[in-house]
Amino acid sequence: MPSRHLDQWAGWAAPPSRAGWAPPGPPGRLAGGLGWAPPGRPGAWRAWAVALALLVGVFGPAGTAAMVRDAKKAVARARQAAQADLAPRRPSGAGGRVCPVRAAFRLTPGGAFGACRDRCTRRHKGLDLFTHQGAPLVAVTDGRIVNASPSDRGLGGISLTLQAADGTRFYYAHNQRNLVGRGARVRRGQPIAAVGRTGNARTTPAHLHFELRPPGHGPVDPAPQVRRWCR
Q: Tens of pLDDT along 49-102?
């Protein structure tokens, strides 16, 4: 196998001055044959070096190189999938209910349902729809406002909850302001709030935190419905 550098496959290499250690094995097999250097972060390079040495010991240089190439392809596929969610979307009203945001918006992997929050001590319970501050938020269906917080406090800040006739609840959080109060009856497509950065969204771009709660259940992933309603 021709001598090639692992940093060309994996996309990184540490400064030579940080290395200071050679993995076990025949002299030059890793550092010379594969041209590998461990990452430069203190402490982390030892773990990477040992892991690479084990891989090469088990699978050989060619097998390890193939695994690295497969990993790069998997990363590229994940990036392509993420880019699809980053594409701006515009509301259309398809699917019986309407898009909660009356403006183009984008989705991000970090704003997905179940994403880590606070070092994974809790999970994201909704879907973040990023758009410009002040964008209109509308009722996704006919219903009643069962909760409304007009003050900027807690995680959700200014927020409200819309309940449909079947008991499904839709939670809108981080609003700039609410246009309706608790007990109000609203119609599908009626403006009920505006996109903001309240609650724990003060340090993030403006977005709607949107939750879907079926009757008798906690929050579920609203992404399939949002994609259908907003396509």
A: 777 777 777 777 877 777 777 777 666 665 655 554 444 455 555 447 999 999
Dig out the tokens for 151 from the structure.
């003050």
CB atoms within 10 A of CB 3: 10
Neighbours of 227 (CB within 10 A): 16
CATH class of 109-229: mainly beta
Which runs of consecutive H residues, i.e. helices, occur in the chain? Answer: 6-10, 16-19, 44-86, 223-229
Residues 143-151: contacts with CB within 8 Å, 24+ apart? 143/170, 143/185, 143/186, 144/183, 144/184, 144/185, 144/186, 145/180, 145/181, 145/182, 145/183, 145/184, 145/186, 145/192, 146/182, 147/182, 148/178, 148/180, 148/181, 148/182, 149/178, 150/177, 150/178, 150/181
Contact 43, 20 (CB under 8 A): no
Helices (H) and strands (E) in the chain, counts: 4, 11
Q: Measured on CA atoms in the order 144, 154, 202, 128, is the torsion positive or negative? A: negative
CA–CA gap between residue 173 and residue 155 (Å, rounded): 9
Residue extent(s) of CATH 2.70.70.10 domains in the chain:
109-229
Does residue 228 sit in helix, strand or coil? helix
pTM value? 0.61
Q: How many CB atoms lie within 10 A of CB 194?
A: 18
